[in-house]
Amino acid sequence: MYQRIGQSAYKADLTATIKLSSYLGNPENEFESVHVAGTNGKGSTSHMLASVFQEAGYKTGLYTSPHLRDFRERIKINGDKIPEADVLSFVEKHKPYLEENQLSFFEMTVGMAFDYFRREKVDVAIIETGMGGRLDSTNIICPEVSVITNIGMDHTQFLGHTLGAIALEKAGIIKSGIPVVIGETLAQTKPVFERIAAERNSEITFAENQARMDYTSDLTGIYQKKNIRTVLATLRILQDKGWSISEENIQKGLLKTGKNTGLMGRWQILQENPKVVCDTAHNEDGLRLVMEQLRTEPFIQLHIVLGVVNDKDLNSILPLFPKNAIYYFCKPNVPRGLDASLLYVSALEFGLMGEDYMSVEKAYKAALTAATKDDFIYIGGSTFVVAEVV
Fold first, then answer.
1. Same domain for 154 and 33
2. Per the confidence metrics, is the pTM higher than 0.85?
3. Nearest C-alpha neighbor of 47 from the set 266, 370, 359, 375
4. What percent of the chain has pLDDT over 70?
5. By three-state DSSP, how is residue 127 classified?
C-alpha cells in the first residue's frame, strides 16, 4: 500500500487495471464520470463537484485518496461511505483473482469503487487520480470532462524532475474529443497542456482566464478560491453538455461541501481558544499557500505540530515555515514516517526551534498544554499527521 510504505508499492502500469476491469465486466462504462488530476487541490475540487451534483439531485459517486482514518472514505455515494459489508463481499468474491494476479492495493480499490458505483447505479462519479494521470489506475474511464487543477513539484521520483515532465504525466488523462479544464498554469506547463489537447482534439479551458465570480465555500482556506474557479469552469462545461445544474445548486453545493461529502483536513478548525487548525498540505506549493493563510491569523504565540514522511524534500519545505513558532516535531505512525529526531535536526538548520516527541498524540498534547487561549496551534506537514488528530 503506497500510502503506508511508499515507492515499493507503486505500480506505473495500466495492464493489471485493464485486465481487472475486463474481469469485472468493465463497470466504468456503466456510469458517467468526471476525472480530476493535479498536484494540489484535486481532493477539494473533487469534493466540491460531488457536493454540487448532490445538490442538483444526482446520485453521486466519489472516489478519492488517500483516506485519513477509514479506508471506506475513499469510496462514497452521496457522502456516505461504502458499507463494510460491500468491502468484505468484494474481497471474498474476487479474492482468488486478486491474489493470482498480484494486484496492488490501489488497483484493487479502483476496481472495488467502479464495481460498487455500477451496482448502486450512480448517475455520475467524480474520480480523483491517485498519482500522476497517464498510468494511474483510474485512467481507464472516459469522462464527461477531465480536470487538471495545477502542477507542482511532488512525487518527482515517479513523475519526473521538471514541471514540464510532471505536466505531461498529468495530461495523460486528456482523452480524445473530451473537454479538459486546467485550473492553473505556469510557463513550463501551459504549452504541454495545449499540445496534448490539440493532438487529441480536446477543447481546452483555462480556469484562470475565466471572469471573476463571487462564490464561496465552507472550505475556508484562502487557497480554495483557485479550486472554486476550477470547479465553476468545469460546471459550465457540464451545463453546456446538458447536465441540469442550477446556480442555486452551485451556490448550495459549494457552501455545503463538508456537510455533503464529509471532507476533512483542509484548513479544518478543530477547536477555538486556543484555535487549532490542521491541514493536509505536504508539498512545497501546498505548504506555501497554507503558510500565507497562517500569516493572516491573529495570535500571541504560534505552535506548530509538524511531521513528515521519509521521502520528503526537507530543503524545499522547511524554509517555508516561520521561525517565530514553537515546534513540536513528531513521526506519523506509518512505516514511511520520518523519525522525529531526524526532523528536529534538519529543522534546526533552518532556525526552527522546538522539541521532538515520540508520537503525534504526545506532540499535540504538549502543544495544547503549552498554549494559552490567545495562541494558535497548526498541525500538518503530512496527511498522516492530520489523520491522527481529526
1. yes
2. yes
3. 266
4. 94
5. strand
